[in-house]
Specification:
With about 110 residues, the chain is α+β, with helices and mostly antiparallel strands. The chain has a single domain, classed as 2-Layer Sandwich (YaeB-like fold), CATH 3.30.2310. Helices cover about 35% and strands about 30% of the residues. A five-stranded mixed beta sheet has the order 1-5-4-3-2, with helices on both faces. A hairpin with a 2-residue loop joins β3 and β4. It is globular. InterPro entries: HigB-like (IPR009241). This is Phage-related protein. It holds the Pfam family Gp49.
Amino acid sequence: MSVPKPIEFRGSALDDLRAFPLAARREAGHQIDRVQHGQEPDDWKPMATVGQGVKEIRIRDAAGAFRVIYVAKFADAVYVLHCFKKKTEKTSKADLDLAAKRYRDLVKELAQ
């Protein structure tokens, strides 16, 4: 078994995740743990519009649909860019823009 990659939450992502209902929070934790160990989440899709290598974990429970946007392609850590509850079928531009900004800031930081 490989050593799990550390998790780094960007911006308000950790607080946003903590605001999820308990069941969704537990599921998000389980899926992030899979990513830390080099596995794919159970339900995910690529988010190329946010940045190269960015993926979205999809969580459904009785309280609604929740998303965790992350990037795991960097060697040092899994970066959680954004966590939110989906309110409409299409992911809002504000959520995508926020994740994209955090991704750009991360890439700049890592390049220094």
